[in-house]
Amino acid sequence: MTSTTDTHGAPSCPTCGALDGAPCTTASGRDHVARARAAIAAEQARGARAGVARRDTVSTLVGYARVSTREQNPASQVAELRAAGAVRVFVDHGESSRIEDRPDWLACLDYLRPGDTLLIRALDRIAGSEKMAIETIGNLDERGVNIRSLTEPMIDTTTPMGRALFGIVAVFAQLRVDTIRENTRRGLAYARAQGRVGGRPTVMTPERTAAAARLHAEGESIAHIARVLGVGASSVSRALAKWDEEHGQELAHSA
Fold first, then answer.
1. Which residues contact 128 (CB under 8 A, 6 or more apart)?
2. What is the largest CA-CA distance in the chain?
3. Which class for 58: exposed (0-12), middle (13-18), buried (19 or more C-beta within 10 A)?
4. Rounded mean pLDDT of the chain?
5. Rounded to an integer, what distance in angstroms lies between the CA atom of residue 35 and that of residue 162?
6. pLDDT digits (tens, 9 = 90+) for 113-150
7. What is the DSSP string of the chain?
8. Catalytic residue list contains 68
9. Cα–Cα distance measured from residue 119 to residue 125, given in angstroms and rounded to the nearest whole number
10. Cα–Cα dist 175/5, whole Å
11. Which pLDDT score, from 0 to 100, does residue 8 have?
12. Are 244 and 236 in contact (CB under 8 A)?
């Protein structure tokens, strides 16, 4: 049985109907005020749970906007998202798309519920690379969240056709990433076979290495040699270690 109130809002006992301040008429003699307040608290708790359930089950259009610098204005993005039906828009101001832990992006992800649709102006608003975009949309899909781009018709997982088109785009994008990775691996393997090593060229040219070896043989410290040559001490150390290894082998062969 639920509690009632009088015309002034005072709670009444859900058992005997007595108003606040009047004696309880129940046979058990319990205080009707405590009964009334407990009933009201239970009713409020049921209402709160019902409200959470409605938020979890009702589909919501949620917008996300981003600009890369503080000088840029996200107002146009926000207006477009609002016009498309977004009831709430999260905005990151001066944040790079290659950074995953953008403040409002994290808040947006936390707000989204299964059945919601994330609205964006373009895919580059949420991801700075194809790989990042595929992973992001995949994670949203696992949570039951759709995504729709206002400027890219193929990015719309709210319809069967849109999901199919995005699946095709994702497959080709992943294929391109895998192809680039495989070509890079093959190129590095070929370079190593030719005696070359990929990466940034060393600052220690053969001339600098020979000079460093000569100074080191004269008793100069690594730090002094680095200052004379205008390079880092770690570069000198690596070059001297390689020099000693190569010339030690030469001496061993000549002996």
1. 96, 97, 98, 99
2. 115
3. exposed
4. 78
5. 56
6. 999 999 999 988 998 887 788 888 888 988 999 999 99
7. ---EE-TTS-EE-TTT-PBTTSPP--TT---HHHHHHHHHHHHHHHHHHHHHHHHHHS--EEEEEEESSTTS-THHHHHHHHHTT-SEEEEEES--TT-S--HHHHHHHHH--TT-EEEES-GGGT-SSHHHHHHHHHHHHHTT-EEEESS-TT-BTTSHHHHHHHHHHHHHHHHHHHHHHHHHHHHHHHHHHTT---SSPPS--HHHHHHHHHHHHTT--HHHHHHHHTS-HHHHHHHHHHHHHHHHHHHHHH-
8. yes
9. 10
10. 67
11. 43
12. no
The CB density around residue 140, as the number of other CB atoms within 10 Å, is 19
Q: What is the pLDDT of residues 11-49, one digit of tens each?
A: 455 555 555 555 555 544 455 556 656 665 666 666 555
User: What does the DSSP assignment read for 185-213?
Assistant: HHHHHHHHHTT---SSPPS--HHHHHHHH
Query: Once rounded to an integer, what is the mean pLDDT over residues 91-99?
Result: 87
The first and second tokens of residue 124, run together, are: 């580059």
Whole-angstrom distance, CA of residue 120 vs CA of residue 104: 14
For residue 126 the two structure tokens come to: 């949420």
Q: Which of 3, 59, 68, 254 is catalytic?
A: 68
Q: What pLDDT is attached to residue 246?
A: 79
- Token match 């030690």: residue? 248
